[in-house]
Amino acid sequence: MDAVSDLLPAFAKSMGSHFAPIFAKLFEPLMKFAKASRPPQDRTMVVACLAEVAQDMGAPIAGYVDRLMPLVLKELASSDPTNRRNAAFCVGELCKNGGDGALKYYGDVLRGLFPLFGESEPDDAVRDNAAGAVARMIMVHPESIPLNQVLPFFLKALPLKEDHEESMTVYTCVSTLVLSSNPQILSLVPELVNVFAQVVISPNETPEVKAQVGRAFSHLISLYGQQMQPLLSNLSPAHANALAAFSPKS
């Protein structure tokens, strides 16, 4: 099983959507390991494998959404943090690449992800992957997300603390909303400034991620000008200087 769960994503990565006919033959044998009677580590191995296949195979995963969503939604509530983490990653990829067929699950997905943002979730990597899932959903179908309800919890979970592979997805989502002057995110400017300041000073984030955040911060400055000063004066000099360094000068 270990070998299979490594091989399938590797094939998907190298073949992209052309992997679909091969995956079709392997899907049912793989799903035998995801039955409720199997141990949790088997189920999460399947979910992790499916997440990576969905990520790299792309659109053909849409044909499997109805089969996979019940499994993945159940795994979001697992008592095992690895299971929750993999389920959050998988559900995000299913929403991203699952086409319109995934839309009907958005409400259930958000309800399943919601507890992972709360104080009761002890695992930072789980929360980071939940943030990644929400970011993917927003990027694909922002009109299907109640942003006024979701964004406060989403931003409260930032900056990412453990799984920085989610950084580009998460901060691209935030930056895209800011750069498009989305009114829901612009109601959360203090939270944004706080997150951006922590991202640009983090040794764990790439220059690309920091540049992305810098562009969004510059947009806030262009919109609000001097109104931003009280927020900036609340930052430490190190945070303020880092933000200035990553903000493109107009």
TrEMBL record:
GO biological process: protein import into nucleus
Keyword Protein transport: yes
SUPFAM superfamilies xref list: ARM repeat (SSF48371)
Keywords associated with the record: Cytoplasm, Protein transport, Repeat, Transport
Subcellular location: Cytoplasm
Species in which this protein is naturally found: Cannabis sativa
Protein name, UniProt field: Uncharacterized protein
Domain of life: Eukaryota
Primary site of residence: cytoplasm
InterPro entries per record: ARM-like, ARM-type_fold, Importin_beta
UniProt GO cellular component terms: cytoplasm
Lineage of the organism: Eukaryota, Viridiplantae, Streptophyta, Embryophyta, Tracheophyta
